């Protein structure tokens, strides 16, 4: 359908150009004189060029896009190189090149992604553009559209090249030290900076499998006997492993919460502990507690593309998930805004399973409300370790004196 419309448009433009050319010739013939013939002579080469351009094969062009790398951290510069080549030197006064990218990249940056080039007789052109401070996200480059035309706009032709690319921008993070708290007493808490040592050799019973249990914990005899997956229950010891719960309620400072989550993930894994992630937006995402470089890449990939698109209120998500009740891990909740219902649900979890940490993340110049301050104190009285974290102060997140 598009090809048919393009051919029809070209036919009408050809007829229009021929009409103008014949009209100017007729004017010169009947009017006579220097001025009329000068106008015809001036218009003749432009009209001929437009007619030739009308039939100029755009498939003679080829366009290629290049990146120095495909993975970045938020805030880094991304340099894109567009290379245009053609097989002949037919004069082209201009090329309007448009890099077709995903809408989320257009929305988050001020780059126009349209560039005007003047090849004239050149067979090769190179154009570089830079996206400063690339925002976190997953971005697609679908193709490159090229438009050519004459000086007066009588003829305009375009062609699209399916040059697909993909760029992943991981969230920024701050290097900080994760200090797992060994014991909690009335006078405070003690922390260790040593690497986490693990011991789960003392099995005392069996129970049903829950997400996050290791494959090696499965008791195959009990599984066959009960016709359900059963795992070993080990002697309860103080754990340094973390399950991170990210609130994806729409908020203008959501990227700061994501950056803070990435910083925690990196610091926990560097400590030698294990970490998992739960986030619920338009769909629920759960990553079991694990350790290692692969786990960091997996979680960072999720945080690169995650959006604040939760359809349920955060407290309702907490209420509907049994996974928080069954995890023998340190639970860390990250929220941008604190509500009464959220504090109630998190406090109830704290009473049942022990160490629960709640971070309220704010922008650098954002003020925490009086209501939130009161809720923070309420959460602390109920045994939830609670702290407000501001952008740029992530390093103090696990400072003992700050709790």
From TrEMBL:
InterPro entries in the record: DUF58
Spans traversing the lipid bilayer: 12-30, 36-59
Record's keyword terms, sorted: Membrane, Transmembrane, Transmembrane helix
Ranges of residues in domain DUF58: 206-368
Protein name as catalogued: DUF58 domain-containing protein
Highest classification ranks of the organism: Bacteria, Bacillati, Bacillota, Bacilli, Bacillales
